[in-house]
């Protein structure tokens, strides 16, 4: 795979830029958006980006940093699931804590936000405290969002318990969006200022990339990735007005900035506000580490198509909305893209017609597309992976990597001992069998060694993947899409918005129009 991003340069620039902000204050509260670990979206749109780059960045700053993890009490109460990991938000907090400990990062505490005594949140709080973890709770802020006089007072932020910290950099992170990170930072600023300390606030968001054009595929891919949130990339008009420089941010930050500026003015009193725009608040240097724009554009276009398929399948599985699926389709079409621009799709669908069974197609670095079909023995995903690593290892089709005795043993374990229904072996089971075979079979060992060369390759399945197959592709770094042999959802209540100031029109649902009233309907 061609690389278009220098991850080491990014880590170096990003860490130095954050330290500059840290040195300007007694304490800096850094709101950390996105995934700390396993940022596979960034990896897909920026070939060469280390998916664990953010946690490695914090590891570099570990002597100066400590971390507060926010989780919204309502998400705990409703058992909200992270779509990418399939675990609840409270479980993700525990997973995140384990990962932070592994990287030798200090965890200050867990903060349960908008807490009103929800039973599930109370149980989670008790569970953490019994493990020796410090837990704070914050309720709803009095007067929020418009009554700044009340918000910035003892009845507002002052009613929140102050979280004692000891290091100059406090990273505020969360398992998902709308967890209360910003409110936590502002509450801490209020308390720090009352104690006579110079505290600052900054925001770390990888996307959108502020110094790339609004219509750059990297930024459009972010819109596609947040189709369910209906985020809209926009020109930062505050930055443009103050500096005469065009930068990109997203609608929520731009819309919230006037209120945020009023709150900061109230907190700081006579001291000047350090920021003139949402872009000023950011510490994002990712745009400066792009080394090949064409490679990045192509990768981002593929991600836009991938997100279209993901939205379609999520809707069909009942875990996504019609609006999100519709928005993903329109974003793809706005960019002049279609499913035909993803070569593995056509090959997989054509192969499926011939074999009358589910098929997975994967494109190798050479450009050759390898397929695998489902059989009674293994899933199409497992068959495709085996065929690919055999091709990469230059192993002939006549050579078998997996002895039937091993496959039969795994199958019998599932049926006779674990009482599973008879089914094809999935990718995880087949790769375990391959590892066992590799102990005595040199061909299997050579094939297994090629698994690392599948990272960042493109694949497509003609059916929705089993969970184990999906996880295996994700862990291998394969960028897979899938579809089901059923028609696209019928899109209704659609309207067209007038072009934005940048000249790019946007299609959206009526609900989006009501949400973003700063855009005018045509």
Give the structure's gist in a few sentences.
The chain is built from 21 helices and 14 strands.
Structural descriptors:
522 residues, four-stranded mixed β-sheet, alpha/beta, disordered C terminus, 21 helices
Number of strands: 14
Strand proportion, as a percent range, falls in 5-15%
Total DSSP helices? 21
Task: Please compute the radius of gyration using only Cα atoms.
Answer: 25 Å
The main sheet orders its strands as 4-3-2-5-1-6
What is the arithmetic mean of pLDDT?
Answer: 88
3D shape: globular
The residue ranges in which pLDDT falls below 50 over 5 or more consecutive positions are 489-522
**Residues in helix, %:** 40-55%
- Report the structural category: alpha/beta
Intertermini distance: 43 Å
Biggest sheet: strands, sense, closure? 6 strands, parallel
Structure description:
The chain is α/β, with parallel strands linked by helices and 522 residues long. It is globular and about 80 Å long. The longest helix is centred in the middle third of the chain and has 25 residues, at 293-317. It contains 21 helices and 14 strands. Helix 9 packs antiparallel against helix 14 (322-334), helix 13 (293-317) packs antiparallel against helix 14 (322-334) and helix 16 runs parallel beside helix 18. Residues 489-522 have low confidence and may be disordered. The two termini are 43 Å apart. Helix 6 links the parallel strand 3 and strand 4 (135-137). It has a six-stranded parallel sheet with strand order 4-3-2-5-1-6, sandwiched between helices. Strands 10-9-11-12 form a four-stranded mixed sheet, with helices on both faces. It has a two-stranded antiparallel ribbon with strand order 7-8. The protein is 44% helix and 13% strand. 43% of the residues are buried.
